[in-house]
Amino acid sequence: MNSSHPLLQLTLVRFREFVREPEALFWVFGFPIILAAGLGIAFRNRPADVLPVAAATPQLSASLRAEKLLDVQQLPVADAERELRNGKVVLVAEPGQNGAVTYRYDDTNPDGRSARMLADRAIERAAGRQDPVASKDTIMREPGSRYIDFLVPGLLGMNLMGSAVWGMAFGIVDARRKKLIKRLMATPMPREYYLLSFVLSRLALLVVEVGAVLGFAVLVFQVPVYGSLVALGFFCVLASMSFCALGLLIASRVQTIEAASGMTNAVMMPMWICSGVFFSAQRFPNVMQPLIKALPLTAAIDALRSNMLQGASLAQLAPETGILTAWLVVCFFVALRLFRWR
Amino acid sequence: MIVLSGAVRYGAGLLSYRKPQGDAVKPQTVLRHTGAMSSNATKAALRVRQLRKTYKDVVAVNGLDLEVRPGECFGLLGPNGAGKTTTIEICEGLTTADSGEVEVLGLTWAADAKALRQRLGIQLQETQLSDKLTVLETVKLFRSFFHQGPEAMEVIALVQLEEKANSRVGNLSGGQKQRLALACALVGEPDFLFLDEPTTGLDPQARRQLWELIEKFKLSGRTILLTTHYMDEAERLCERVAIMDHGKVIALGTPRELIASVCAEHMVEFSTGTHGHALDLSAVSAIDGIRDVQRENGSVRMQVTALHRAVPALLAELGRQSVPLTELRTHSATLEDVFVTLTGRHLRDE
Questions:
Q1: Average per-residue pLDDT in chain B?
Q2: CA-to-CA separations, B186 to B116, B145, B147, B179, in angstroms, rounded
Q3: Which of A228, B153, B251, B289 could disulfide-link B310, Cβ–Cβ 3.0 to 4.6 Å?
Q4: CA-based angle A58:A63:A66, to the nearest 5?
Q5: Rounded to a whole number, what is the distance in Å from the CA of A184 to chain B's nearest CA?
Q6: Within 10 Å of residue A58's Cβ, how many Cβ atoms?
Q7: Domain boundary residue, one of B213, B238, B258
Q8: Would the pTM count as exceeding 0.95?
């Protein structure tokens, strides 16, 4: 009957508008999964590389073949040096005077240095060297320390930011441009319901969105979630709300889609680069660190990463919680101050 | 403070039309009146006094006075930029005036905005409703904001969009979109309907269809304020018309009264050939029953009271002056002629 609540109707409208926009669906759901899959494949952990080396004599060649991590070719010295220059081999072993060995390699190339050590060990052992200390290797290849494990929380944070900021800014500016906000203001609709409907539809979509990306990462790449799921959910919601407030701030006065899209990109671009989506934010100079740490995306990604990969508790993530809450409160109140209802 | 029941809100009971099932009293039946105003307030559905609004250096509304009676359809007629939209948006509570008083249904925006919103139906000039929603979803959304009113499908049937109920708004024609906008204005069963240029940009058939809808609502006794720059629209729909120019009302009355007050019954226009003698207009003006003779873009325009006597006399005079007639047109005077007579400009001159 007529009992339909305005907040429910408004939220349904947001939902329908989103679902009926195929491009938006792709960017929110398809894109992060494709990105995770692509990068996961590109940076998958391969068995340790075998290093190509060249030996100038049959004796040297035989000694080197004892080392499984070297791929040995026997070549005349001139050919071997050409292959080295071309990068086909990383090291050439040739006989020196009085039974000595000469290694040619580029010492700025880590592969060259590794090959030097492996080759030297093989030749010395072949000549009868006994190692005074016995050693044993334990191989560590467990989930949680791979690139894909590092990447997934980053993508998740980036996705939370993109969908919240875009959803808010685009939805509001588009309605303002079409004079739809003004039309709604001419009805008895409570204003807070209008903004609340954006938040509610965002939260509902968040469940699907995070579920899709995380589910894919866990099922396909066995990305671990060591922390509590409740804490993970809390950070997703908190981060999404902070980004919604940021989107609201961007949308508070802008009249055209072009201006909104320019502002959104200007706000998000520095965070894509600095906040540690694809590589650790620690790589930036120390002077920039306080600034980078204060960005909401950095806080969101740090929190997600610590939760998922190190099992950090909510209490341990208090600084990140504080930063995200501060962004939420400040952006929201400034946005309400500036907001133009027409 | 006076408490009135829904049916006798306007004393004369002009709005006691309520549909059969609508005999429930509306929740907002408490009207606030302040002493001396109460006797007048019960008579006027809208009262505007000394309204002024300036945008930067443009004076949009310049000391406007207006009174709309309950149950009437009142038209604000004027060219683009006359201040019609600013006026109606101030009355709708969407724009604040620099100074002046506005009282809608005896309430003011400052004191009773919430109650007032429930009782107004508003159509804005250039709203684009969301293309991705269907007609039914759109009407349901607007319906959810009002405490009472008909079912969404009922309103859709009222504006003859039943067949389109499940179509996306983006697939509607201009006329259908305008009817949907009207439906959104009607979902709250409003006492007062504001329509800002409801037929601008529509083809003649769509305009006539919308006029028929508006006429139907008039029968139910609602008060309507509409702005338009189409004189035929105002003449057909409005009981009374205020002609606006430069932010002021320059004429007010029923369309017939306005036409009668400034014009004779008929307008005659003629053109003469460029050869032959120059026309002596003073002799034409002297003909009995002809007045207000004006030259306009190479033709001559005048008001005529008795067409059957004036036209033969005009032809005789042209013959006497040996001026050849190339064109002769006559029509009954319209609001357009009133506007031209008052301002020397046409309604749609830019």
A1: 82
A2: 15, 12, 13, 10
A3: B289
A4: 125
A5: 8
A6: 9
A7: B258
A8: no
Q: Are residues B20 and B47 in the same domain?
A: yes
Q: Do A187 and B132 touch (CB under 8 A)?
A: no
Q: Rounded to an integer, what distance in angstroms lies between the CA atom of residue A223 and that of residue A148?
A: 7
Which amino acid, residue B167?
S
Residue that is written with structure tokens 């003004």 in the block? A182
- Per-residue pLDDT band for B28 (boundaries 50, 70, 90) equals very low
What pLDDT score was predicted for residue B17? 35
Provide the domain limits for residue B328.
264-332
> Are residues B238 and B278 part of one domain?
no
HEC profile for chain A? Answer: CCCCCHHHHHHHHHHHHHHCCHHHHHHHHHHHHHHHHHHHHHCCCCCCCCEEEEECCHHHHHHHHCCCCEEEEECCHHHHHHHHHCCCCCEEEEECHHHCEEEEECCCCHHHHHHHHHHHHHHHHHCCCCCCCCCCCCCCCCCCCCHHHHHHHHHHHHHHHHHHHHHHHHHHHHHHHCCHHHHHHCCCCCHHHHHHHHHHHHHHHHHHHHHHHHHHHHHHHCCCCCCCHHHHHHHHHHHHHHHHHHHHHHHCCCCCHHHHHHHHHHHHHHHHHHCCCCCCHHHCCHHHHHHHHHCHHHHHHHHHHHHHHHCCCCHHHHHHHHHHHHHHHHHHHHHHHHCCCC
In a domain, B134, yes or no: yes
What is the C-alpha separation between B109 and B150, in angstroms, rounded?
A: 26
B200 SS3 class: coil
CB B241 within 8 A of CB B254: yes
Percentage of chain B lying above the pLDDT 70 cut: 85
Question: Using one digit for the tens of pLDDT, what is the confidence trace for B263-295?
Answer: 667 888 888 876 656 788 888 888 888 888 888
Lowest mean pLDDT among A42-56, A109-123, A156-170, B301-315: A42-56
CB–CB of A179 and B130 under 8 A? no
Domain boundaries defined on chain A: 6-43+143-338, 51-126
Q: What is the largest CA-CA distance in chain A?
A: 102
The residue in chain B having the minimum alpha-carbon distance to the alpha carbon of residue A180 is B127
To the question of domain A51-126 being in CATH 3.40.190.10, the answer is yes
CA distance, residue A264 to nearest chain B CA (Å): 23
Residue B298: CATH number of its domain:
3.30.70.1340
Quick one: B237 and B294 in the same domain? Answer: no
Q: CA of A240, closest CA in chain B: separation in Å? A: 25
Tokens representing residue A192 in the block: 């807070």
Structural domain tally of chain B? 2
Q: What value of ipTM does the predicted structure carry?
A: 0.76
Chain A positions in Cβ-Cβ contact with residue B149 (cut-off 8 Å):
2
B129 Cβ under 8 Å from any chain A Cβ? yes
Give the CATH number of the domain where residue B53 resides: 3.40.50.300
Residues B233 and B274 occupy one common structural domain = no
Whether B12 shows a pLDDT value over 50: the answer reads: no
Please give the structure tokens belonging to residue B133.
Answer: 């929603």
